[in-house]
Amino acid sequence: xxxxxxxxxxxxxxxxxxxxxxxxxxxxxxxxxxxxxxxxxxxxxxxxxxxxxxxxxxxxxxxxxxxxxxxxxxxxxxxxxxxxxxxxxxxxxxxxxxxxxxxxxxxxxxxxxxxxxxxxxxxxxxxxxxxxxxxxxxxxxxxxxxxxxxxxxxxxxxxxxxxxxxxxxxxxxxxxxxxxxxxxxxxxxxxxxxxxxxxxxxxxxxxxxxxxxxxxxxxxxxxxxxxxxxxxxxxxxxxxxxxxxxxxxxxxxxxxxxxxxxxxxxxxxxxxxxxxxxxxxxxxxxxxxxxxxxxxxxxxxxxxxxxxxxxxxxxxxxxxxxxxxxxxxxxxxxxxxxxxxxxxxxxxxxxxxxxxxxxxxxx
Length: 363
Hints:
Elements: E1 8-11, E2 14-23, E3 34-39, E4 45-55, E5 74-75, H1 79-94, E6 100-110, H2 117-127, E7 132-138, E8 141-147, E9 150-155, E10 158-162, E11 164-168, H3 176-194, E12 203-213, E13 216-226, H4 233-240, E14 248-249, H5 251-261, E15 272-277, E16 282-287, E17 291-295, E18 298-307, H6 313-332
Antiparallel strand pairs: 1-2, 1-7, 2-4, 3-4, 3-15, 5-6, 6-14, 6-18, 7-8, 8-17, 9-10, 9-16, 10-13, 11-13, 12-13, 15-16, 17-18
């Protein structure tokens, strides 16, 4: 194994060290041990099994974070290209080809060799706490996420998914199209889970709740199901991946439109990042949004928006900027301050009301 930082992962308050093996075989998640999981949107999976797992906070980094300059970030699509792509999606909707498409762009900036994921994860933990925050740092895969969105939680045979559709600075700014998007994607998630669920077990216990997160609010719904006896992690992922909230509906048509319009691989962005404890039959995979990853000597970050017939092209570009601004400011700016009480973790303070992000566009 090449020299460098000790391989580690940190999720859900647990620190994993002592890397044993790495595989791409999803069947390993039904075997034994604790696995850190990174799946790219394109369907490439990295599963890392660790021998030593304990309850522990994120360890302090050996060196301070040295992020990219604020002006160094470039986008795979500039504003004109993105607005043009939104208009193209509206044409597809008008033609009856698709109802909704999630359109994304990838931002990147040069990064120094001294910049390590643990240091970035520590900054995000302070400046942008998230319910599914985590990190993986092993040879060939370096990912740090502040994801707010649950893709799949599995507790033995019970599966939960919590799609996010609808983003605004405050709850009062949600548009009718946000509600329509969320309901549409909930139906898609229900259909995906039904492929591997016992008949009659797919339910929606929560629909269109408002969740506050640092700098913005989301509309979130919950879908649950009971897996059939012959369905394990490979079958569950095959039925549901990529997540409906970051593709669109119908999924097959949305995937085609995405492939035609986007000009850069999404990588771990819009994929899945999380952990599986195969010994206990539990695991949690987040949708890979609000996620940084290393690609050679560049740090990457993705941002996107859901496009419907009711979308305003300029407004959708603005939404991608809102989603990216706070995270890129943390990666490229001074040491962040903790969010205010009004920007607290929704799992700890579900009644909190977020405030607009005061940071200007950092790229």
